[in-house]
Amino acid sequence: MTTSFELPAERLYRHCDLAALPAFQTTAELEDLHDTLGQTRALGALAFGLGMRHEGYNLYVMGSPGLGKHHTLRRVLDERSAAAPVPPDWCYVNNFSAPHKPRALRLPPGTGSRLQRDMYQLVRDLLAVLPAAFETDEYRARVQELNDEFKAREEQMFNRVADEATQNKLVLIHTPVGYTIAPVKDGEVMEPAEFEKLPQAEQDRIRRASETVRQSLRQAMQQGVALQREHAQRLTRLNEDVARHQVDLHFADLQNRYAEVPEVGAFIAEVRQDILQRTDEIRQFAAENKAPLDGQRLTPFNRYFVNVLVDNGATRGAPVVHEDHPTYQNLMGRVEHLAQFGTLITDFTLIKGGALHRANGGSLVLDAHKLLSNPFAWDALKRALQAREVRIQSLEQMLSLASTISLEPQPIPLDVKVVLCGERLLYYLLAQYDPEFPELFKVEADFSEDMPRTAESMALYARLIATLQRREKLLPLQRDAVARLIEQAARRADDSEKLSLDVGGILDLLRESDHWAPGRCRMRRGRARGTGGGRRAAARRPVPRARAGGDPARPAPDRHVRPRGRPGQRSGGDRARQAELRPSLAHHRHRAPGRRRRDRHRARGEAGQPVHSKGVLILSSFLAQRFGQTQPLSVSASLVFEQSYGRVDGDSASAAELCALLSSLSGMPLRQDLAITGSVNQHGVIQPIGGVNEKIEGFFDICRARGLSGAQGVIIPASNVVHLMLRKDVVEAVRAGRFHVHAVTHIDEALELLSGMPAGAPDAQGRFPENSVNARAAQRLTEWAQLRSRFGKEGHDRAERAADGHE
Q1: How far, in Å, CA of 467 to CA of 30, rounded?
Q2: What count of Cα atoms within 13 Å lies in the side-chain half-sphere of residue 175?
Q3: Nearest 5 degrees, angle CA 780-CA 782-CA 788?
Q4: Cα within 13 Å of Cα(771), Cβ side
Q5: From the DSSP assignment, how many helices (H) and strands (E) are in the chain?
Q6: What Å distances lie between residue 59 and 47, 52, 360, 407, 536, CA to CA?
Q7: Is residue 615 within 8 Å of 653, Cβ to Cβ?
Q8: Which helix (H) or strand (E) holds 86?
Q9: pLDDT tens per residue across span 331-362
Q10: Which residues have CB under 8 Å from 589's CB, separation 6+?
Q11: Among 159, 161, 154, which Cα is nearest to 226's?
Q12: Model-level pTM?
């Protein structure tokens, strides 16, 4: 058997050279790493996007979980916001001309809450001093003086009418329903019967005199109405003077305090004018309520209050808001309602701001997946960014789901930098299907998954480990433990020449190794140093934890690893969670005479995914290129992965599939103690695949469970050799000759390893060497083509019967 493709143990793991690391004994001697490691491109995109103040230059930060996106973003935003100016406060106040449309006030930072306190205290003071001002002796004396004057003038006016009546021998009588005029005789009111006995001339005189006095009385009463109106006006002016005096005493200081803010001055003037018009209402309310404002949300005096929507008084620099639950209301704000007498009522003091209000003038960080998962939130955010204003609208009103009284607050101008954090797939989906997304989020910051493994990068990585260790208050790491972590970072990167930037994974490994370090796990006092042994223990722990309960879907190893298989049977691998692998058995079954090659996972169970199906189609192209140049192909083949119950995707099994197919056509069995992984193109070139370390280790674990025979091994693409960072037990088994790793570049090399026979290269006429795998396969295809050509339908049946003997 050809062994020139076998890799030595030295190429299966690249150790970290301790001489390449800085001089230190433990990480306690290393300086902290303040910059983000390996993310130069992402940091440049962040700096550009945050620095652009033009419309549409919002950011989308993408990358896998664990790369430190949020930590880096928070640090960058905090650094930039510290040097930015503090944005203004935003408040809502009553619109006295249109109460259902509250007005927005833009105030200097810290002014909003101060104005809110001042207006609340003003109302409390006025509710106390105004009623008291109308209880003073001076006020009562002045009112009594006006009342006496009014009564005197009224009596004087009616006395003149009474005197006129007396001169005409009449009397003016004041009754509960008004005034009446009656004739008198000898000082007594004349009865009607007695009046009828008077001479006609006297009666006529009395009637004429009564009419004259009645005219005078009517004029007097008209003058009395005017006099009463004048008296009321004088009382009103008195009350206004008293109230104005008290109000001006309290408003003078308030107006001086906010003289530099014209918007506040105009609002205070409106409040003063409205209070002067409502002094009687204030007095009555104060008289009926001993504690007018205590424990009441809605009062007649809410119209004078200030609703602080955004208070930046304690803010240092521009705000940075991280909204973890980006619902529509949490983003845009809401108008709350109170139940009162069976109905819902509201006013401007119940308006609540959202994340856009708090982040106005700064930055707003949102999780893209959470944002898109909340109904109406994404559309509302886009409307706000396009209109450059925040408009608070009730969802119930927008959807016509409620008929309660609502408000239409004045929109607030918006100046915010929105940063979305999410996966790359989500970014490309939005860019593809939402035409507004590229116009609003023009800057993408893509965090790298890894960086080159050089002496300089390893030194920086050591400082990163020291920084994480101190930040998490873990045990210091010795020099060899740092080297082991660097090697683990290369393994996580699936490349021995790169280092993974998955800070979250490294941090988890640090925490677990700290737990297993000497002195920790035995609960001893004191601080012990972390060693490489603790790191190795932590690196091995996840898989045993994951298998603790057994895996019913994991096939029994004895049924999959056989020294020799049947034609058309090949062992492959299926990558599973927790970095372990399930071996899979691929079966091919061919028949004549169709030109199809069927993937049964796709055709029957819908388990085959698009990439896997594409790999199956590539195999058809390979067969046509290799065997269909001189004759038409006349074969139909089926592919199935035995006991595979999940989705089958990817093309890393296409090399195994092609080997199984060629084995089926040639009738040559393949070794089952060699597993193969790799993608193949239509020319037969073996291409690199992902997860090569986990796949090798997964098959190694299966072989070790049965017992290492010294012949077992794996075949991988030669282009994946640079990615090898295998476990120590695998490397030692290869060094001892109990396990083997082969690297190939072409499918023919894999066939030679699996079959023990030469694959056979075609000559100029397309003929293959005798007794080679390809020659046997070509001969079988030629026979079927001749049978079909010579005998037609009968040849078809013969070819089928011939194929039935070769599974």
Answers
A1: 8
A2: 9
A3: 105
A4: 2
A5: 28, 28
A6: 10, 10, 16, 33, 40
A7: yes
A8: none
A9: 999 998 888 777 788 889 999 999 999 999 99
A10: 568, 637, 638, 664, 807
A11: 154
A12: 0.77
